[in-house]
Design a protein that fits this description.
about 350 residues, Rhomboid-like fold, 2 domains, three-stranded antiparallel β-sheet, about 60% helix
Length: about 350
């Protein structure tokens, strides 16, 4: 279950808030509709066979094709509404910011309209009403994925103690982890595409909403770059577009920007990981690498890289892990050897001072 994300926004997402209010207001209207929610769905939901036949909405003079729009703001039950609105709130503010308010309105309607059309065209013989904002929101999620692929989604998740997932995450049961948007949103979209392929094969019946999800996501992917405001698009080297994918397992992804903080520090995760490996007699990974240190070095943050290696070296000594001690000592020597030229004369002395005047007391 997603709890929050850390992609930055710089303004109040008024359009997202308005869409939330509109969807909730329409649902309250459905509750008060004569005959209840079911009657409202049959009257104003998108019924593929009825739309293809033409005509008007029963009991009105409104053209039936208008239900392609009205269905985007209707929901079948409270759970359907809450799930969609939660996803809209989580991802909509960032996409709204990168586009601006008016463009985001157009983007939302385009994604929702494409999802409605796909439902009608692929389910033309169906007399069941289709409703929901999920097609438009799938487009928003696809847009978010393209704009912020390496942003982190703080997620409540279950790690089954019966498998080896805990070896990598250092925990079991109900835990909170920060997961790359590329994994979180990407896997959801892949699942939707797979379900659509199964539905189109005709071997298994699927709810027509599955078509809406894929069509909305495709529309979102197609239009997000066209509607995005150039100066608001995250730069290629920004953390939300370039942060290492491996970091989510070690809790360092809070640095990607925004309000989300790491749910656990790297030393705590490494310590749990080490204890699990020792307990299960698992081999140490080869060769020695530290993605955090490498990331800091690549961005020129030499001092921060050395501080990080010093902390990890101290932890390795406490655990009597000679392999990691040797690895961090070698990493420290390597970093000092690549200090930029302007620090060549005084750099080693200053950097050794950062390390406490020695490399662990040896």
């Amino acid at each position: 279950m997603p709890l929050r994300d850390n992609a930055p926004t710089y303004d109040v997402p008024w359009v997202t808030l308005a869409l939330l209010a509109l969807n909730i207001g329409v649902f309250l209207w459905q509750l008060a509709f004569p005959g209840g929610i079911a009657a409202s769905l049959q009257a104003w939901g998108e019924v593929p066979s009825r739309i293809l036949d033409g005509g008007v909405v029963p009991g009105t003079a409104v053209p039936v094709w208008c239900t392609l729009l009205t269905a985007m703001f209707m929901h079948a039950n409270v759970g359907h509404l809450l799930g969609n609105m939660y996803a809209l709130w989580l991802f909509g503010d960032n996409v709204e910011w990168v586009m601006g308010r008016l463009r985001f309105v157009a983007f939302y309607l385009i994604c929702g309209g494409c999802s409605s059309l796909a439902t009608v065209l692929l389910g033309g013989a169906s007399s069941l009403p289709g409703v929901g904002a999920s097609g438009a929101i799938a487009g928003v999620m696809a847009g978010y994925l393209i704009m912020y692929p390496r942003a982190r989604v703080t997620t409540l998740m279950w790690i089954d103690p019966g498998d080896y997932g805990d070896v990598f995450t250092g925990d079991v049961g109900l835990v909170v982890r920060n997961i790359s948007a590329l994994w979180f949103v990407g896997t959801w979209l892949i699942f939707q595409v797979a379900m659509t392929a199964i539905a189109l094969s005709g071997q298994v019946w699927m709810n027509l909403g599955i078509y809406a999800h894929v069509a909305g996501a495709l529309a979102g992917a197609a239009f997000v770059q066209l509607l995005a405001i150039g100066e608001r698009v995250p730069k290629p080297d920004s953390p939300e577009r370039s942060a290492p994918l491996t970091d989510p397992f070690f809790g360092q992804e809070g640095a990607a920007g925004g309000g989300a903080q790491p749910v656990a520090t790297l030393p705590e995760e490494v310590e749990r990981l080490h204890e699990l490996r020792v307990h299960r007699g698992l081999p140490r990974p080869e060769p020695f690498r530290d993605s955090r240190a490498e990331e800091l070095c690549q961005s020129g943050q030499w001092h921060e890289a050395l501080r990080h290696c010093r902390e990890m070296l101290a932890l390795a000594r406490e655990q009597d892990d000679d392999w990691r001690v040797d690895g961090y000592l070698a990493k420290i020597d390597e970093i000092i050897g690549y200090v930029p030229g302007e620090e060549e004369e005084e750099g080693p002395a200053r950097l050794l001072d950062i390390l406490g005047g020695n490399r662990g007391g040896e």
